[in-house]
Amino acid sequence: MFRSDIRRAASALAHDVGKYVARTARNVPDGAWTPELASMLLRDLYDLRGEHALHAFLRLAPAATSPLAAFPEWTTAHDLLRELDAMEPALRALEAPALESAAHLALRVEVALGELALRARIGAPGRRRKGKLP
Amino acid sequence: MTLPPKLLIVDDGDRYAEMALQFMRGYRYATRCTLPGPCWTCPRRPGCTLTHAHDASELDQALARHDDVDVVLLDLAFDLPPERLLPSNEHDQERRRRHEGLAILAHLRKRHPALSVILMTSKEDLAYEDAAAALEVDEYVTLAGSDAFDARAVALLVERIWARRPRASLGDAYEWGKGTAMARLKREATVLARTSLPLLILGETGTGKSALAEQVIHPASGRMGPFLAVDLSALPGNLVAAELFGTVRGAFSGALDRPGRFEQANGGTLFLDEIGNLPLDVQRLLLLALEGGRITRLGESLPRQVDVRLIAATNTALAMAVKSGTFRADLYARLNPSAQLMLPPLRERLDDLPALMTRFLQRAFHAGSHRTLLEEYAKAHALPSGLPVALEMGKVSHATGALSFAWASRLQPALRAHPWPGNLRELDHVTVTTAVFALADALQAIETERAQTGNPCWIPIPARLIHELLKLQQESAGGSAGSGTDYAPAATLHDWVTGIEHTLLASLFQETGGDFQAMAARILTGSPARNARRVRLRFNQLGLRVRAGRGRSK
Q1: Which chain B positions have a beta carbon within 8 Å of A27's beta carbon?
Q2: Which of B509, B503, B504, B510 is nearest to B536 (CA)?
Q3: Has residue A47 been placed in a domain?
Q4: Is residue A30 part of a domain?
Q5: How many A-B residue pairs are in contact by the CB < 8 A criterion?
Q6: Any domain includes A133
Q7: Contact B124/A at CB under 8 A
Q8: For B37-69, what is each residue's pLDDT tens digit?
Q9: Does B156 touch chain A (CB under 8 A)?
């Protein structure tokens, strides 16, 4: 796989999973969960274009074949998504502590996938670095 | 009052719409739905797909219905079947899907070059560098960056775009034309709008007095309250005081606690049309309101303070009314007659005819049933929807990217020679009526599979229809007894237009001895039998009677 392909795969991961997973989590103030907002969070985590966020993640960057799996950020994001997957029953029961906790985890997934995309971009060939990277 | 920006969301899914409707409720939204009220109060919201546009075609639909969209929130990737994506030479379907937002942006730019767009993505998501380069030449695009799903960040972007939008200059919505009289009027209106003094606008009927007050003076006054217009000629004399000043329960039989127009216009502008029709007893109350800024509801003893800018208009000579004793001299003096604005009649601004006609066409065809007719025509000719409307006077240009109503150059002398007693209102009627007839005729030609020649973007206006309309109106204005057509204002524009139509068909009926086929041949092209049926249908709809008409013609 070319580095440009790796870069695109990481961008797709950050866009298709990272951004969508954190959609509701980043907009709801602490402790302000309503059933409607909880339903939005559930859709972010378990109905990402018809599949769980974890499944979308593994489809775009499979552990066995994707070069991205070698990055530590991939592992971080994967662990967080597995943890979120395990919380599904508590979230569907609208348990307030679970909702709070899931929101924080979702934000961390977004950060991890953003860092993964950044790392993939920095390493890509043919790209001249200008000034300091963020 | 300044309305918040109107947003239009374009997204293949519903994530952005859901976020905006949940967390950004301070804005207006251009939806594809016809129900009133915001989506978040709508009982049909769960599962509703009309909250936003899902592809380029739905974007066109939404923009055709909402011409006041301020900012478009556009997604980048569209997970849609290929037939719903815009046509492209790109063979890589994944790339096409991921960058459909850019194709939609290019599509949008063809018709709305200066519409602000927030692309809900970051440069990092633009995995292909040529795509990112395309955005750098578009000054009206803002990237949401990594905060595309942060409602506060998106709202901040909207506010920034809103803050740097070009402020509408004085009377952008008003057609000033090129004449010196209108240029002077514009200067005077600019100055007088900024004062708080009452203002008097004079001009013949249909010259645009109400539009001047609403579209120019009120916005330029900087007043944050509403603009309210009251046509005093349409109110029964005994109800004028209650309408203007309000009532309290028990003031008279059936009276309720109800604010009047002065209270409703508090902080804004109250436009009183046909002030010459104001009864004398109400003139006294109006004088008190103008002098102290206080009004008293009927049946109430204590006055209420109001802050209203009064603009009065009339088509009669108020000074003469003062002399004849039907208008109070002190009220006339209070209306600041030394600073009155005088609108010239249309016959004195004939050079503005093309610009005014274009304005009327664009207004008539931007929405509603006329727009539906236009879209039907565009669809029949496989033209893109949402095309703007233009007017071609004498020359034909095929490169305007618009649907052009073409007026032959030989019609110009007839238009200039016509006295236009109904002024802008009459011109509006003639322009729009002829355009609608031409469009209906073109549509019928398609239905009957008559041979179509020429560019479908060019819709010729039948000269004979214009001659008929102008001839009839000139005869009416000349005082043909009993014709029933004077240009006295009707209660609504619809009534006024219907009256003209009524007279036209009645006159044709008499001239042709009740032969509907001959009537149809005078005003429509195409199948005589079908046209005759259409004319007869309209004749009946207008309440005209065949027997009575034939009787008169004999």
Answers
A1: 19, 22-23, 149-152
A2: B509
A3: yes
A4: yes
A5: 43
A6: no
A7: yes
A8: 788 888 887 788 888 999 999 998 888 888 788
A9: no
